[in-house]
Amino acid sequence: MVAQLGRGAPISRKFAPHDMAAERIVLDAAEVVDLGLRYHLQGYDVVYFELARRLGVPVATLDGGMRTACGIFRVKLLVP
């Protein structure tokens, strides 16, 4: 995964292993702040949530804010 905030700086290229496909998402910094404030999420949680939403993959979390955001945006949750 390569995430990038509005000003153009990649957050993490080195975390995408070479044998896996890398996904690049571009998020506006205001969008990250807005989602974080609305659902009580940290910035990295917003990026994780947004990647799952865009790719249509489920989210594994026990965090209440993340679970709320997933419910509102109809992102599937992996339940233990």
General description of the model:
The structure is a single chain. The protein is α/β, with parallel strands linked by helices and 80 residues long. It contains three helices and four strands, in the order E-E-H-H-E-H-E. It has helices at residues 29-39, 43-55, 64-73; strands spanning 2-5, 24-27, 59-60, 77-78. The strands form two sheets. Strands 1-2 form a two-stranded parallel sheet. A two-stranded parallel sheet has the order 3-4. Helix 3 links the parallel strand 3 (59-60) and strand 4 (77-78). The longest helix is centred in the middle third of the chain and has 13 residues, at 43-55. The chain is globular. The two termini are 24 Å apart.
Mean pLDDT: 78
Class from secondary-structure proportions:
alpha/beta
Q: Assign an overall shape.
A: globular
Strand order of the largest sheet: 1-2
Order of helices and strands: EEHHEHE
What's the structural blueprint in terms of helices and strands?
Layout: E1 2-5, E2 24-27, H1 29-39, H2 43-55, E3 59-60, H3 64-73, E4 77-78
Parallel strand pairs: 1-2, 3-4
Question: What can be said about this structure in brief?
Answer:
The chain has 80 residues and is of the alpha/beta class. The chain has helices spanning 29-39, 43-55, 64-73; strands at residues 2-5, 24-27, 59-60, 77-78. α3 links the parallel β3 and β4.
